[in-house]
């Protein structure tokens, strides 16, 4: 089987596919009211956003932004099509962004705010839990603030990277 995985910059024409990815993950991973937040992000807050294309179809997305002083890279809006979860594409996209952020001299930390539903994914890839805020995103969707700890990343087989 000839499978092609490409991570490329988000284009405005990707918006319907990205919104579809969110809907496919609602309410399992996202609260319904978060669609308005994603629409706002796509229209007004994107700094670096990417899509994962698998054999030409958009199957995932995620980006990063910066803190006001540009010292912190903030992982944002990771979404993967349910049929493609658990196949390494989410890890590939996260590692891609962490690598980009680590190339920037002004970045002193990399953080992510996620939920109790997927924080273990980030933990497995080198992020450490710093804070939990109950019902932050919506009722039943807690916020888990995490920070990347260089040197603690593991590969798909659990080995250190």
Description:
By secondary structure, the protein is of the alpha+beta class. It has a domain at 5-109: Aminopeptidase (3-Layer(aba) Sandwich), CATH 3.40.630.30. Helix content is 26%, strand content 35%. The chain contains four helices and seven strands. It has a seven-stranded mixed sheet, with helices on both faces. Strand 2 (48-54) and strand 3 form a beta hairpin. Helix 1 runs antiparallel to helix 2. The radius of gyration is 15 Å and the shape is globular. Mean pLDDT is 91; it is low at 152-161. This is GNAT family N-acetyltransferase. One of its GO terms (molecular function) is N-acetyltransferase activity. Keywords: Transferase. Residues 5-151 form the N-acetyltransferase domain. Pfam families: Acetyltransf_1.
Topology (SSEs and partners):
Layout: E1 5-9, H1 15-24, H2 34-45, E2 48-54, E3 57-66, E4 72-80, H3 89-102, E5 109-114, H4 119-124, E6 127-138, E7 141-148
Parallel strand pairs: 4-5
Antiparallel strand pairs: 1-2, 2-3, 3-4, 5-7, 6-7
Helix pairs in contact: 1-2
Can you count the helices? 4
**Within the CATH hierarchy, at the fold level, what is the topology of the domain at 5-109?**
Aminopeptidase
Structural class: alpha+beta
Quaternary organisation: single chain
Distance separating the two termini? 28 Å
The CATH architecture of the domain at 5-109 is: 3-Layer(aba) Sandwich
Give the fraction of residues assigned to helices: 25-40%
User: What is the average per-residue confidence, as pLDDT, rounded to a whole number?
Assistant: 91
What's the order of the H and E elements? EHHEEEHEHEE
> What gross morphology would you assign?
globular
Number of strands: 7
**Uncertain runs:** 152-161
Give the strand order, joined by hyphens, for the main sheet. 1-2-3-4-5-7-6
CATH homologous superfamily (4th level) name of the domain at 5-109 = Gcn5-related N-acetyltransferase (GNAT)
Keywords: Transferase
Protein name: GNAT family N-acetyltransferase
GO molecular function: N-acetyltransferase activity
Domain N-acetyltransferase: 5-151
């Amino acid at each position: 089987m000839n499978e092609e995985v490409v991570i490329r910059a988000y284009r405005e024409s990707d918006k319907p596919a990205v919104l579809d990815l969110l809907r496919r993950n609602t309410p399992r991973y996202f609260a319904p009211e978060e669609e308005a937040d994603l629409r706002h992000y796509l229209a007004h807050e994107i700094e670096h956003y990417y899509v994962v294309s698998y054999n030409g179809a958009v199957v995932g997305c995620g980006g990063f932004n910066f803190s006001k002083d540009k010292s912190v890279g903030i992982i944002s809006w990771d979404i993967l099509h349910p049929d493609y979860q658990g196949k390494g594409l989410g890890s590939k996209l996260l590692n891609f962004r962490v690598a980009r952020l680590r190339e920037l001299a002004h970045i002193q930390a990399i953080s992510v705010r996620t939920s109790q539903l997927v924080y273990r994914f980030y933990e497995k890839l080198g992020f450490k839990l710093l804070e939990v805020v109950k019902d932050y995103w919506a009722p039943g969707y807690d916020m888990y603030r995490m920070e990347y700890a260089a040197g603690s990343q593991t590969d798909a087989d659990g080995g250190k990277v």
